[in-house]
Amino acid sequence: MRRPLYGWLTADAISLTGTRLSMLALPWFVLVTTGSATKTGLVALCEMAPLVALKILGGPIIDRVGARRVSIGCDLASAVTVALIPVLYAAGALSLPLLLALVAIGGALRGPGDAAKAALTPVLVEAAGVPLERATGLSSMVERSATMVGAAVAGVLIGTIGAPAAIGVDAASFAVCAGVLAWATAGLPRPVATVEETAPYLAQLREGWDFLRHDRILVAIAVMVTLTNLIDLAFASVLMPVWGHEHAGAAEVGLFFALWSGASAIGSGLAARWASGLPRYATYLVAFLVAGLPRFAVLALGVPLAIVLAVCAVGGFASGFLNPVLGAVEIERIPRPLLGRVGSLMTAACYALMPLGGLLGGGLVSALGLSAALLVCGGAYFVVTMLPAADPTWRELDRRAPIEGPVAPAA
């Protein structure tokens, strides 16, 4: 039965497109209405901090209540929360403290909501009877495509109907996502709990932490992704805009990211078809070798734009194979009853340093100049992603195992 899998992917596409839209519309709205870059940054901080915190704290709730219920509930609550922003603004009742509160609530809901969607993967794969890499590959393709489409839709909507109305479209996307997911996943089984339903919340949280810290591969993946996310944020938020300002233009920067996202979506689509037959360890090393250092190097060396875009396309394509492989490893190694809390902890760790990416990029450019900053970041990216070549533990990526954990009928 593939309706749950493809319905889940459709719901995720709707939600991610709306989220990408809001990522542009909300800062634009704050900047236009307040004229303050500081207040715009404060809004972003108010969203990210509770998002990371609730990713950590929401795991036991996902495992106890059920990933389906948490995902649908968070999406419905997000629809109401986000819709209040344009409604209150139109009524002249949206103060900055109230906006910050609504943004913080929205971030707090997205944390467990996103984690709950990911926790549905094993039962969806089982119901559809497809390889795990097929589901993680399609999910990655949806994410990359939503990034590209959401940014384009945001630009059109902000320019035509204005930022407040665009935020309202994001609110509607949450409601539609909840409806699609409820319809598609009705009747799915859910994991059997590994602790008593009445066990203290902290005991459940500790169970997830204890499992994670004793799995060397999962810890290594979390550390690697945390560091690469930090560098990627420095690249996207500072290094690329500075490169565009000094050597190209805003259109070229937009083209770079659009090309990267499009090529990555194609790579993820092919990974969904072929990754289950590829050696994971070798795929990881080759993909990061192509997707990592070269993009930093070509920008630092000042090569012609055509070469920059060619490297971008190849690197983006290679990056599309990474999430399907790493996502499959994560889901295989975590018992299903623990997937919510362990997955939430891993995701929160991967997000932890992202708010510092802009500071890192800005500090390096100020201290070293753009070219040196690009080479430093590229070199660090190479070291972080290629260390597994010297660590035999990482060869466990090739050890495929059945998804752990029994299921019980859905409540």
Description of the molecule:
With 411 residues, this protein is mostly helical. Helices cover 80% and strands 1% of the residues. It has 18 helices and 2 strands. It has helices at 3-34, 37-57, 59-65, 67-90, 96-119, 121-128, 132-160, 163-184, 201-213, 216-247, 250-274, 280-291, 293-301, 305-319, 322-333, 339-351, 357-368, 370-386, and strands spanning 190-191, 407-408. The chain has a two-stranded antiparallel ribbon. It is globular and about 55 Å long. The two termini are 19 Å apart.
| Proportion of residues in helical segments | over 70%
- Radius of gyration, taken over Cα atoms and rounded to an integer in Å: 21 Å
Low-confidence stretches: 192-196, 405-411
Main beta-sheet strand count, sense and barrel state: 2 strands, antiparallel
| SSE sequence, one letter per element | HHHHHHHHEHHHHHHHHHHE
Count of the separate structural domains = 2
CATH topology tier name of the largest domain:
Growth Hormone, Chain: A
What is the CATH class name of the largest domain?
A: Mainly Alpha
Shape: globular
End-to-end separation in angstroms reads: 19 Å
CATH architecture of the largest domain: Up-down Bundle
Q: Provide the structure class.
A: mainly alpha
> What is the average per-residue confidence, as pLDDT, rounded to a whole number?
83
- What's the CATH superfamily of the largest domain, by name? MFS general substrate transporter like domains
Read across the widest sheet, the strand sequence of neighbours is 1-2
What count of helical segments does DSSP give?
18
